[in-house]
Amino acid sequence: MLLLVGTIPMEGLPITFGKVHYQPDKLTIGDYALEGKYVMLGTAAMISAASAACQAAGIEEPYAAVIGDIGMGDGTIKLLKYLTEEIVKTPPSVMTLHYILPTRDPFTNLINAAHSIPNRPFLITDAGALLNAKAVKFSQKFDLFTPDPGELSFLADPDAAHPAYVQHFIFNVDQTEVPKLSQEAYDNGDAPRYMLVKAPIDHVIVEGKVVSVIKEPNVPELEPIGGTGDTITGVVSALISGGMDVAEACAAACKINRTAGELAKPNPATTIAQFIPFIPEAVKKVLNK
Fold first, then answer.
1. What is the pLDDT along the chain (289 residues), one digit of tens a residue?
2. CB-based burial of residue 193 (10 Å sphere; 0-12 exposed, 13-18 middle, 19+ buried)?
3. Sequential DSSP letters for the chain
4. Which terminus, N or C, of the chain has the lesser number of Cβ atoms within 10 Å?
5. Are 125 and 96 a contacting pair, CB within 8 Å?
């Protein structure tokens, strides 16, 4: 079972857990339906992409646990406490943590609970959860990080407790620095065994070393579309939950995302909600389904 976890920036959304099903402009989690703009916001975009990929690849659709949090952190704490109690009852095979607010004890309690399970879940993190993992020195309790170059720069700085305080100016990171920063992060204990660095040129990292680079299809129009990093995380989570080798899943997810972009023919006005419907066709094309 793939379990996708995160907050959604909306008021009034309680802890919501259930099986996921995506269709264009609608994402169902258990008995709750997110529609319209909420389908393309951060965690929801990741969940939608994972569901779309599972449908196309013949993988069991994921489950999700979400809650509303508009930046106060109360939703994050409630969700992490809930999962800490529930994860030992019905352990997932893969768990991906996405947008959460910074927190120490509720976060570490959940990860420790996951590690207490025989045949513990494969742990993936992106976005706020990734930054939180590094800040509390839990990076190596995870299996896969999916950072962008700015987040990678944060991981590579052993003294930075927040991305605002990295020694390296994060906006100047380019693909030539990814191998060096990846190795530094791993050597410092601030990166897990696997990383997928999402950028104009994608890198798959194993134990600090680059094992594959993905450049094609090259769709520059994807870069300004908010959420395409979230969709890669959703797709790679789906592929790993389906049993694909981790490094192969990372490379395939990058190709799928790029292929979906090619199929979508995006322009500067394209939204992630318009992009996600092309993921199933891209999955079939890349995986020869």
1. 999 999 999 888 999 999 999 998 899 999 999 987 777 778 999 999 999 999 999 999 999 999 999 988 999 999 999 999 999 999 999 999 999 999 999 999 999 999 999 999 999 999 899 999 999 999 999 999 999 988 998 999 988 766 655 655 444 556 678 999 999 999 999 999 999 999 999 999 999 999 999 999 999 888 888 899 999 999 999 999 999 999 999 999 999 999 999 999 998 889 898 999 999 999 999 999 6
2. middle
3. -EEEEEEES-TT---EEEEEEEETTEEEETTEEEEGGGGGSTHHHHHHHHHHHHHHHTPPPPEEEEEE-SSSSHHHHHHHHHHHHHTTTS--SEEEE-S----SHHHHHHHHHHHTSTTPPEEEE-HHHHHHHHHTT-GGG-SEE---HHHHHHHH-TT-SSGGG-SS-GGG--GGGHHHHHHHHHHTT-S-SEEEE-SSSEEEEETTEEEEEE--S--GGGTTSTTHHHHHHHHHHHHHHTT--HHHHHHHHHHHHHHHHHHH---TT--HHHHGGGHHHHHHHHHT-
4. C
5. yes
Which tokens go with 60? 């069991």
What per-residue string of b and e applies to 113-143 under the rule 16 or more CB within 10 Å gives b? bbeeeeebbbbbbbbbbbbbbbbbebbebbb
State which CATH number among 3.40.1190.20, 3.90.830.10, 3.40.50.620, 3.90.1150.10 fits the domain covering 2-141+226-287.
3.40.1190.20
